[in-house]
Write a structure and sequence with these properties.
488 residues, alpha+beta, D-Amino Acid Oxidase, Chain A, domain 2, 13 helices
Length: 488
């Protein structure tokens, strides 16, 4: 799928960056009736969004730094996402082992109490306490001799943040937005000191076009400073601090999601059931290179293994299937990477430009609402935000009855079934080991902007998260995508 939506001379909003925040801004603005253009230099949801821990959470650890406003914002947003995207966001119980020392136990019990208080409007259960015997029965692989029981608390998990981003794009497009992936902003268009548009190069063809907007939004995540240098009329100082986080997909060695303090440096680390794996993360180290080139090093992997092994010895022998890495975009600040606030910031230093710096996956919808409120104020538009109450496209009650389709598409699964039914050969599985079919590839190419095979494996299906990362299906995916794109 190449172009979509109306191509026009002037948009109300031109958004640079198709990560979760940019996609959320496009949806919010389109639902309010603004004319919108969204461009992403790679694929929607392919950057920091795909490198996340895949949690929708308030950030229990931020209570220790006194960042109560951030925790409250994200706990409120967690509840909203459970409501508007129930097919993608699900409750996840965590074990928080309690130390033997009375002071450590008191500190964590107070933290649990505050977490419940700050999520006063939640639908999830309040925390409860397990005895040492109950903890051992619940998680026998954990060395429970080090702990005095555990707290059980609830957050939520998003199995595919990539599809969460994509559903925001789908909704924006269905409400008239022009959206384009593989479209890199290479320069700005200025009227005096005001930014009035951007020059966009389609990276797969080299074609360049101008997109003009009454308001431009830089929501390019860890690429923010690079984009700012291209589009702003003067050379702005760096406003971003970028840090790398890696994860390891291991054969399962836990039964529950477990929140632990690293045995190396005391940082928060997780071992989480996900897609049949134990998903281990994360690191937090400064990273100054191209975010697209971030990857897990042997040192990163060793850190996570050494962090968890004293409490979860099985991590040393567990098979490691693959690693992932992402780069966080944080508001520039001194101190240790883990100590930098995850709260976002909006700036309007350049006329015509709203800059979005920082933010978390969980709070993307609230950030988008704040951005569009600011844009509407500038444009003297009074439309209200409806994204907190309007389900995402797959968030309705309809289902296909096919589990893997329902998990991916939610209430849009019957639409995919109908698409496949028009051509019986599209029902052929991509490989004997997967339930995914040729029709899903064709649907992704025709209706979900999939341009490259990895767009399907990594961001429009769960194949890229299998132990072999979808290799068994690669030839069939390549063939089907080539055929469908050539017909587009």
């Amino acid at each position: 799928m190449t172009d979509s939506g109306p191509d026009q001379t002037l948009y109300d909003l031109v958004i640079i960056g198709g990560g979760i925040v940019g996609c959320g801004i496009a949806r919010d603005a389109a639902l309010r009736g603004l004319t919108v253009a969204l461009v992403e230099k790679h694929d929607f949801g392919s950057g920091t969004t795909s490198g996340s821990t895949r949690l929708i959470h308030g950030g229990l650890r931020y209570l220790a730094t006194g960042d109560f406003a951030l925790v409250r914002l994200d706990l409120r947003e967690r509840e909203i996402l459970l409501r508007i995207a129930p097919h993608l966001v699900a409750p996840l119980p965590f074990l928080l082992p309690l130390p033997k020392g009375w002071f450590g136990r008191l500190r964590l019990r107070i933290g649990m109490w505050l977490y419940d208080v700050l999520s006063y409007d939640k639908s999830l259960p309040r925390h409860r306490i397990l005895s040492p015997a109950e903890l051992h029965a619940a998680e026998p692989g954990l060395d429970t001799s080090q702990f005095h029981g555990a707290a059980v608390f609830y957050d939520a998990q998003c199995a595919s943040p990539e599809r969460l981003a994509l559903e925001n794009v789908i909704d924006a497009h269905e409400h008239g937005a022009f959206v384009q992936n593989y479209a890199e902003v290479v320069g700005g268009i200025h009227d005096g000191d005001r930014l009035v548009g951007v020059k966009v190069k389609k990276t797969l063809t080299g074609d360049v076009r101008d997109l003009r907007g009454r308001v431009i939004v830089n929501a390019s995540g860890p690429w923010f400073d690079r984009v700012a240098a291209r589009v702003e009329p003067s050379s702005p100082p760096p406003r971003l601090r970028t840090t790398k986080g890696i994860h390891i997909a291991c054969e399962p060695f836990t039964s529950h999601a477990i929140f632990l303090e690293s045995s190396v440096d005391g940082r928060a680390v997780f071992a989480i059931p996900w897609m049949g794996h134990t998903w281990v993360g994360t690191t937090d180290t400064d990273f100054d290179g191209d975010p697209a080139a971030a990857s897990a090093t042997e040192e990163d992997v060793r850190y996570l293994v050494d962090s968890l092994a004293p409490q979860l010895p099985a991590i040393r022998s567990a098979k490691k299937y693959w690693t992932g890495a992402g780069v966080r975009a944080l508001v520039r600040s001194d101190g240790s990477p883990s100590g930098v606030s995850r709260m976002h910031r909006l700036t309007t230093d350049t006329p015509g430009l709203i800059s979005v710096i920082g933010g978390k996956l969980t709070g993307y919808r609230a950030i988008a609402e704040e951005v569009v409120d600011r844009a509407c104020s500038d444009l003297r538009i009074t439309a209200r935000c409806t994204t907190a109450t309007t389900p995402l496209p797959g968030g309705g009650p309809e289902r296909s009855g096919v589990p893997h389709l329902d998990a991916l598409y939610g209430s849009r699964a019957p639409r995919v079934q109908a698409f496949v039914a028009h051509e019986p050969s599209l029902g052929t599985p991509l490989a004997a080991t997967y339930p995914d079919t040729r029709g899903q590839v064709a649907y992704a190419a025709r209706h979900e902007w999939a341009e490259q095979p990895e767009d399907f494996t990594q961001r429009r299906s769960f194949l890229g998260f299998q132990p072999d990362q979808g290799r068994a299906a690669r030839a069939a995916i390549n063939a089907e995508m080539s055929a469908k794109l050539s017909q587009a």
